[in-house]
Each structure stands twice: as structure tokens, then as C-alpha cells.
Amino acid sequence: MDSYKQLEFDKIKRILANQCHSLTAKRFALSLLPLKKITEIRQRQIVVSEIQEIIKRRHDYDFHNIYDIKPLFYHYEHLTYSYPEFHKIYKVVTTSAEIIGDHTNNKNSFSDTPEYQKIIEQLVLLPEISKKFARTFADDGEVLDTASPALQEIRGRQSRLRQSILGLLQKKIQEKQLENVIQDKIITLRDDRYVIPLKEGSIGSMPGIIHGYSGSRATIFVEPNEAIGMNNEIHQLRQEEKEEIFRILKDFTEMIQEYRDDLLNNYSILGDLDFYFAIARLGNSFKGNTPLVSEKTVIKLENARHPLLLYTMQDEDKVIPFDLELGQDYDILVLSGPNTGGKTVTLKTIGLLTMMALSGLPIPADKESEIGQFSHILADIGDQQSLEDSLSTFSAHLGHIREMLEIGDDKTMILIDEIGAATDPEQGAALAQSIMESLIGKGVTGVVTTHYTPLKLFAMNSERCQNAAMQFDPDKHIPTYRFKIGLPGNSFALEIAEKLGLQEEVLNRAKDLTGKQNVELTDLLTRISSEKKELAQSKFQYDLRLNLLNQKINEYDSKLFQMESDKKNIRQETVKEAREFLANLQRELESEIAKIRQKDNQERKKETQQVIKKVASLNRDLVTEERDLLVEKLSPVTEPQVGETVWIRELEGTGVIVAVEKNGVKVDFNGILLVTDTHNLFYLSKVKKEEGKKKGVNIHTTGQVKTELKVLGLTFDDALPLIEGFLDEGYAAGLNKLRIVHGKGTGALRNKIRSYLQGVPRIKEHYSPAPEAGGDGVTVVVFS
Q: pTM for this structure?
């Protein structure tokens, strides 16, 4: 079975090959297969992800002139290379130098790409070759005079001799006696020798060597005797020039042979880089990310899209993403739903993204996605009818299933489209269930699509299976191309037929034939889906409130601990200072008393002793209080009453009793309901206001009025009615300040709330409190 073709992995390889510049990299792309070792996969992923970032920073390279130079070293047949062969080697050298230079001159751009840097550091600079090439060849491949001093000297002699012979012949054609025998007063070349064209029958007029006739034989080309010697010398110089050029090229060839290892190393690295840059360009074209490749046989896709659809449409908004998990709570997903609803595309996407990830390619999914390392990826998708082999669709389908059952194991991914289809529905469903049971027994991981109701029920009752439904818009009668885990889907065949305009009488008859059972099943699925949605919303709200409550409890526990600690430290210091003051005062008084005793004044002596006793008694009381340091003695609540405002010792604030239960008293503390024991509650009338002020507690006796509103996770439109009611209640209750907790996030909700507050006349100002009080995640409102 050609799973790669069925999943269209071959198309990905062709697109990747088109991104490659060199033939070497194109061959790599067209032969691409999933890698066997997870270390190799991860290494390629790291390099490619780094290059993706490099390309985004506008660092890309041209590898079009990188040709295979291996034959120049391993199949060496001639003494020298030709110019095209020198040029291939030269491009390897200069492209390597360009990349090394870019890396050296822009180190900051590559500081966060360590694996890419390791590759670049393996390239070798070969300036001797590039300089030699530049001295030797012109752009058209001609050997330059600068190739060697000898060549320059030979060509200089040639030039001087050429000028001499041209001067001689020019005088010759100007002679008067030859005026009637010269065909054209021009000097031309014949057999690399300079000659003069004469008219037919004028051979005797100019002694010399005949070098041929024109096509019409009206012109004779004659080399005058005076020019023969110089022409011979030029011919000799040309021979010397050829020999010198051969020597130059031979020396250059031998020089290149000495750098063979470095050149082949650079060529290999450039081929790899071309391949890696092509992968990175392809990944960036569909905003691909590098998923985690795991040794476990799991699939976790987040916001996954089909790469070929992205490549074709060039618009990610037109390709609907999906999330999927396999291999954790269940191994096989049974996907059902309407025709043209996206089941097959989803199936192909799962298999194709798995192949791409295991080949080290980025995939169009969030980077939190995870792909397990599967040893086999087996697919049976679409119409597999084979006319050449005389196989029906069903026969081809069973052939693939047989192969899956033969080689499938716990390292195998299977993808089956319309399992058990193309035959009698009853027998097909039974066969499909039997196949499923066998595959589950082998521990395979995968996805199958079906329209069979018995298979949906089997998945519902199987521990390692899970249903999923492609969604269908019942109002518009069109598929949404999204799927939901947990419920089987309806085929919606009648709805689609109605949408496509099938005659009404045919539709009505089909509905009668469908029977009550299928209608009831459809209604049941619809109701379950609706109830599940409501349950999910309730659970989300519950989890949100629970998290907020736990967060608030932790905050108050921390504040309570710190406040208790601060209170004890302050009171210890205060009592210590007071005791020291009284001790000093006692010593001063005793000194005064000693002086009084000397005066023998009995009445004053008696008064002084009474003062001393009083001061000593006060000092003893302070010592006792310092040692005890108990919380201010308050009047505890003995008979809690609903609606009563009480002081909560744990939270150092006020709350309202909303219920008295067996396990405690339920109190509303600024919108948070908590259950506590009565020993933590005190009558509000006994709380000292000075103590509240010292602790920074704003004590209100306004019943249910809240001083803080949380709108975390809400949109501005949903939060606005809550904010308006909150401000109205706070203002009516005479409160000075209120807190709106909206969280930090992107800042969008905060900005919209503050823009609204600026337009409220009764608000004097609003601001962010200190970081420890919530910072930018909170807005404090002050009324005017």
C-alpha cells in the first residue's frame, strides 16, 4: 500500500524540491522519508527552526550555482579541467565565502542559532582558489593575460608582431601597380595567416602563397612573400600561447586537487544548507512550527491545518484548524458526520503532519503539538479501484486492511476512510467492528471514518475508542468542517439532499423509509450535544470561580500572616518602650522620695509611696501583656443570624452572614462565599475603629455592597453591565473607592474599561495600585 501517495506526502516533497536551488538539494527533497532515529529528527528540527528565524531576519542565500563536483575528483580523466568545471569549483568556494562572511559580519543576527553556527563553522575559506580563478579567467571563460607573466609576454610579442604585419600589408594594398588586381582593400585571415584578396586571374601580379578562393571563385586569397616570415612567427607564438595556457590550467587543476577534501566538505555542507533553507522557506510559507517528537505513540495537534490547502489557498483563514489527541485516554478515534464534511481531509491532515514531523519538517500547527514516533503509517483513503489488477474498490480496501492486520503493532498508526464500506451495509458494519476489535487488540493508534451506526455504538462502549463528530450547521444545511470529540456524528444525508435541491416527494419518502429509530437517534445526539455544551460552560464557570476563590484565599492567608506578624512586632516594641520609660520614671521617683524622706515630712512621704506602688503595678501589667500578646479581645458571635454584618478575624474585614449550616456559617466577603466557624466571627459593634485604621482595613456597614468586582476572562461587552451596576451600588452606598479586577493579559480589556471610566462624570480619577496590590491587573476607581 502506498500510504505516502494516499496521504499526498509526495506532493509535499515536490513542493519542497521546488524550493531547493541546487540539483543536489532537489534530490534530497525528492527522496525524503521519515527518519528512523529520534535524535536525527530532533537535530534536523532544531537546525530548520533556527534557519526559519534567520530567513525572517532577511538572511537567505542563492544556491543555484552549486553543482555536483564529486565526479571532478573521483572520475578524473583529463590533465586539466575545462572552464565550466573550474567555474563549478569556483562557485562552491565563493558561495562558502559569502556565507562565512555574512556570519562573521552579522554575529548578533546568529547569536541565538547555535546549531546553525556549528554547521557554518565547518565551512572552509579557500581564498587561494578564488583569487587564482579571478586572475586566470575572464567572464566569458577566456584565459586572461594576468594568468602568468609568460603568457603576458607571449601575447605582448604577438600584439607587436601583428601590428607590424598589418602595417606591411596595409602599404602593400596601397601600391599603385596593384590597384586593378586587388579585389577589396582589406586584410583578412585565412588558415590563421594574414592575406590580401586578389581578383581572379591576378595570381602573377603578387608573388606569394595562395590560401584558397572565395565561394564564387572570383577572389583569390594570397599571402605576399614579404609577410610569410612574420606570419610564421605569429603562428609560432600562438602555439607557445596554447602551451602556456595548458600549463596554467594544469597547474590550477593540480592546485585544486590539493584542496579536494576541503572542497568536497564545502560542497556537502552547501547541499545540506540548500536543503535546510528550502525546508525553512516551506515552513515559513504556511507559518509552520516545530512540534515535540516523542518516543511515545501519541498524537497531540493544536490548531492543525492541512499544509497543501494552505499552500494552494495562500490564506490560513480559509483553512479551518482542528485540535486532536490520540494515544492518551484512547487510541482509536471513530470520526463520523456528513459527506463533504471534512472527514477525509482531517484524516489526511493527521497522517501527513505525522509524516512531515517525523521527517524533521515544520508543520502548520501550534508549537505545543506533539507527534509520536511511529514505525509504520498505514493508510486506506479514497477510491482504490484498480483496473489494471481487476480489483474492485472493496477488494482493494480489504487488501490494505489485511496488510494493516499483518504488520500492525503498538508502534503503528492506521488511517482508514469509510471502514467496511463499498459492500452490504449490515455485513460491512459487522466486518468493520471485527477489524476494529483486532486492531485494538494489536495496540495500534489511529483514526477511522464511518457512517455505520453500530460502529459508533461500538466506539461508545469500547474503552480504547472515542467518537468524534464532524459538525453540521442545521440552519444553513452546510458542514462547518469542524469536529467535536466525545459524540458520534450524523450523516445528515437528507438535509444535504434537500440543500442540493432533490425533489420534495423523494425526500419525504426517504424520511418515511428512514424509520423512527434513526430519527430518535438523531434527536438524541442533538440533545446530548446541547447538554454537553451547557455542561462544559457550567464547568468552565465553576473552574474559573474556584481558581479565583483559591487565589483570593491564598492572598488573604498571606496578608493575614504578615499582618499578625507586624502587629506582634509593633506591640512588642511599643510595650518594651513603655516598660523602659516606666522603669526610668520609677527610678526618678525613688530618688525624689529619698530626698523627701530626709525632710521627714510624713504626709508627702505617704503620697509618694502610693505613686510608687501604682507605677510598679502598671509595669507588671505591661510585662504580662508583652508576654501574652494576644489578639484584641473581641466579643465572639454566639448566635449567628442571617443578614448580620460581622468582623471576620481570618480575613481582617467585614462580611455578611448569608446562611447558618451544620458545618459552619456561610459568609459573603466582598462577593466571595466562604464557610467558617463561629469562633472566627465577632460582633461588629465590638471592633475598635482605631484598630481597623491601623491595619489599613476599610470597615463598611453597608450590608451586601461590594468594594471589588472581578471581570477576569470576560469580554468588554459582557463586563460592561456588571461594571455599571457595581459603580451605581458603590456610589449609592457612599463608598469612596472601588476596585475592578480585570487581569493583565494583552491589556485590551483594561484599556476599554478605563476608556469607559473616563466618560463617567461622578468618577474623580482611576489608576493602577502598587504591584503588590494587583498592579496593572487592577483599576482603582475614586468617586468625586
A: 0.62
